[in-house]
TrEMBL record:
Name assigned to this protein: Trehalose 6-phosphate phosphatase
Organism of this sequence: Genlisea aurea
GO MF term set: trehalose-phosphatase activity
Cofactor: a divalent metal cation
Pfam family, one: Trehalose_PPase
Amino acid sequence: QVYEFVKLDEVYYAGSHGMDIMGPPHKGKEITIFQPAKEFLPSIKKILEELKSRTSSIPGSFVEDNTFCISVHYRHVLDEDYETLEEIVKGVVSACSSSFHMTRGKKVMEIRPSIKWNKGNALNYLLETIGFHSDSDAVVPFYLGDDKTDEDAFKVSRRGGVGYPIVVSSMPRETVASHSLRDPSEVLLFLTQLAQW
């Protein structure tokens, strides 16, 4: 999905909390280079369909398929319907034994495979793949994120003191990121200026 938004060649893409990583295309075809939760795909599909079915009667809820992660958005759900939605999601997850777990983000519940993998692991994998090491100036990692799940990647990007972890938040919050931007418009301005530098 990330590639469809950006569509830049010669770029590595990571989605689904780093569980779906692609390298630069070769002869016009996307190359998947790492999927640590591939064996969970059939189960994810079943959970996705069950969640869509069971939450369809809750106005404002939206179940999103992120390939290796299912996001249940509730930004537009009425307060009186939230508890019902949460019970449905928790029930579906608990029926999966310990194979899946739920985390929370900004007005979203996310269901992911229970593997030892997070955005920090994904960033570390990408940095190793492109040959990054802290005493090299060939790669300067920037990591921008607006969610609690980005904190693991912020930690990785701070290692060695050469990276730039940037939290995107309109409100001050506790974070290990060393820099901050207020909103997506500031992110756009920052990236535009960085590209022109």
